[in-house]
Amino acid sequence: MSRLTLLALVLGPATSAIAQNSYSFTPIDCLGSNDTRAFGVNESNVIVGGCRTVGLHGFVYNGDVFDTVEPPGSSNSRIRGISGSDLAGFYRRPEFDFFRGFARIDDEFRDIVHPLAAQDTYALAINSSRQIVGGYFDAAGNEHGFLYDADQYYPLDCPGFINSQVNGIDDDGRVVGFCDDGVTTVAAIYDGTVLTLFQCPGAANTVATAINSNGVVVGAYDTPATTHGFITVDMGQSCTQIDYPDAPNTQVMGITSSGNLVGFYFDDAVSYIRSFLATPN
Question: Which of 81, 85, 78 is nearest to 44 (CA)?
Answer without folding.
Answer: 85
